[in-house]
Design goal:
Number of helices of chain B: 11
Oligomer: heterodimer
Largest sheet of chain B: none
Largest interface: A-B, 30 and 21 residues
Order of helices and strands of chain A: EEEHEEEEHHHEHEHEEHHEEEEEEEEHEE
Helix content of chain B: over 70%
Distance between the termini of chain B: 49 Å
Strand content of chain B: under 5%
Number of helices of chain A: 9
CATH topology of chain B: MetI-like fold
CATH class of chain B: Mainly Alpha
Largest sheet of chain A: 6 strands, mixed
CATH superfamily of chain B: MetI-like
Helix content of chain A: 10-25%
Number of strands of chain A: 21
Strand content of chain A: 35-45%
Order of helices and strands of chain B: HHHHHHHHHHH
Strand order of the largest sheet of chain A: 7-8-9-3-10-11
Distance between the termini of chain A: 23 Å
Radius of gyration of chain B: 20 Å
Number of strands of chain B: 0
Number of domains of chain B: 1
Chain lengths: 359, 225
């Protein structure tokens, strides 16, 4: 992956300091993840120029947007970006169409008409164009806000917890749009969230933040399985695998998917051969056995190598396994680690009790 | 009904109020914007100065203006140097005094309207390529339309209703500084109650209508298409 976004910021607000030095991919969705107060939104605002870090260097696709040493600070309105705020932030005195046109009237490089229509279709807002923002639901507003940012054909799309103000149902209404956007438009997205669900569903890359600093950054599956990060300790710790559909076992109501290093059986899901599927596996649903279980009701038994072991909370151990090329997290008891004599490098089998499909 | 002198006074009043309102909007808008947005330590003191005419007796304001604008005042010396001469007892002086006297009625509604526009709307405009000035005209102005209406109406109506400052700074010169409120005073002094009734009743009706419009029709209802 080509890293062509460089972001270095030092910002001091007294009680809060941001200090980051990041190199980010210029494709796919990069999720900035962390608790509230971790600085993820401040970082996003620095990239947008809505906040000016005392010391900063920001380069996107070879263009310098900020260089405090060189005295360069491009004001927000001169940066070719798209920004989606937590609450849609539409102009209440303008119709949906006028909101969409607001930015379009002010730029030169825009999408052509068919592509703009495609975006409106993708977000399902064609029928809303004549409405006033006050007459839209929360989910509709947010989709208009996303379209308003996207039609400008930005070099980067910045999204600040765009789903945080919506209920679970509205979230599920927008999440698929976001995955599709990224697949079809190829605009890099920086996405701020503290929701693990959104992280699992959307992220290609992950930046974990805490107290104004970057704890880790890298590809999603690799970063999720790092035992030195709090994410792997969490009760809801997960591994996310990218798979493709290879076969439907209609008699058993199952679908087989292929991942790098093996295959899995999932509850039947629609989709033709080769359809990509994102699969999420909770660490607490993974158990470890030393010998291949001849008789087990669990369908997914895979051979694996132990890559790392760490102590967790309350007598738990966190084990990072390699299944083929893919990392996999397992939460087991510390006693099991001792009884099974688990050590780094040991060959074992993993049983996966359940998993969920994310898209 | 109205004597020629009354009509003269009416026309002069309208002229003063219109000019003063235009100047108040011109100076008041950036001032209100600054007061609504700034975090400067000067905000408190400037706010106080703007609000002073609300509580001061008009004669106090008029007295100091007379001194400031007079031949020996700082402003007076400046205007004399410019070749305009001293402003007291001139039409221009009357407009200047009116602007200072009524400015809180323009600045305060505007300040409230501007404060009600969240920082977020301005930021959204910036991310949509609008420069700050562009944002002011395309977002701030339309969103504070009712604030501007209130400011214009109140500023205009209050200027028409002034008396003390006018008398102190403008005096009582026909066709130059004799506005309706002063003319009413003249009529009453001369015991011309009928004449006074026409003008006073007219002002009462005008003020009532203006306030009625302000308190009923100005609730801007959302546009629903």
């Amino acid at each position: 992956m080509n890293n062509s976004i460089t972001a270095r910021f030092k910002l001091d607000y007294g009680e809060f300091q941001l200090s980051v030095n990041l190199s980010l991919p210029n494709s796919g969705i990069t999720v900035l993840f962390g608790h509230s107060g971790s600085g993820k939104t401040t970082l996003l605002r620095c990239i947008a120029g809505l906040e000016q870090a005392q010391q900063g260097y920001l380069e996107i696709n070879g263009n310098v947007w900020q260089d405090s040493d060189g005295g360069i600070f491009l004001p927000t309105y001169k940066r070719p970006l798209g920004y989606v705020f937590q609450d849609a932030n539409l102009f209440s005195h303008l119709t949906v169409a006028e909101n969409l046109n607001y930015g379009l009237k002010r730029i030169k490089t825009r999408f052509d008409k068919p592509k703009i229509n495609h975006i409106l279709d993708l977000l399902g807002i064609q029928h809303l164009l004549e409405r006033m923002p006050d007459c839209l639901s929360g989910g509709e507003k947010q989709r208009v806000a996303i379209a308003r940012a996207l039609v400008l054909n930005p070099e980067i799309l910045l999204m600040d917890e765009p789903l945080a103000s919506l209920d679970a149902k509205r979230k599920q209404e927008i999440l698929p749009f976001l995955s599709r956007l990224n697949n079809e438009l190829n605009i890099p997205i920086l996405y701020v969230t503290h929701s693990q669900q959104e992280l699992a569903q959307l992220a290609d890359s992950l930046v974990v933040m805490d107290a104004g600093k970057v704890l880790a950054s890298g590809l999603l599956s690799k970063t999720l399985s790092r035992l030195d990060l709090p994410l792997s300790q969490d009760h809801d710790a997960i591994t996310v695998w990218n798979t493709t559909i290879v076969e439907h076992e209609t008699d058993f109501h199952l679908t087989r998917v292929l991942f790098e290093g093996g295959s899995l059986s999932l509850p039947a899901i629609e989709g033709s051969f080769g359809t990509p599927l994102r699969v999420q596996i909770y660490a607490r649903d993974v158990s470890i056995v030393l010998e291949f279980p001849r008789a087990t009701s669990i369908l997914n038994v895979l051979s694996a190598t132990i890559a790392d072991i760490a102590d967790g909370k309350n007598g738990q151990s966190i084990v990072c396994l390699k299944v083929g090329g893919q990392p996999l997290l397992a939460h087991i008891t510390r006693k099991s680690v001792a009884v099974l004599n688990l050590k780094i490098g040991k060959m074992v089998f993993v049983q996966i009790k359940g998993m969920s499909i994310l898209n | 009904m109205f004597s020629p002198a009354d009509i003269e006074a009416l026309l002069l009043t309208l002229k003063v109020a219109s000019l003063a309102t235009i100047f108040m909007l011109l100076f008041g808008t950036p001032l209100a914007w600054w007061l609504a947005r700034t975090r400067s330590k000067w905000r408190g003191i400037i706010n106080t100065f703007v609000a002073l005419p609300l509580v001061l007796p008009p004669t106090v304001l008029g007295f100091y203006l007379l001194i400031l604008l007079g031949k020996n005042g700082i402003v007076g010396e400046f205007t004399t140097w410019l070749g305009i001469g001293a402003l007291p007892f001139t039409f221009a002086g009357l407009v200047v005094a009116s602007v200072l006297y009524s400015i809180p009625f323009v600045v305060q509604p505007l300040q409230t309207a501007f404060s009600n526009i969240g920082e977020q709307s301005l930021e959204a405009a910036a991310t949509l390529r609008a420069s700050p000035i562009d944002t002011f005209f395309s977002v701030v102005l339309p969103l504070s339309k009712s604030g501007f209406l209130t400011a214009t109406i109140l500023g205009f109506a209050h200027t028409i209703g002034e008396f003390g400052v006018v008398l102190m700074v403008g005096g009582n010169i026909p066709d130059k500084t004799r506005v309706v409120s002063v003319q009413i005073y003249n009529h009453v002094e001369a015991l011309e109650y009928t004449q006074a009734h026409w003008l006073a009743g007219g002002l009462l009706g005008f003020s009532f209508t203006v306030l009625l419009i302000l308190y009923t029709d100005l609730k801007i209802t959302p546009r629903v298409k």
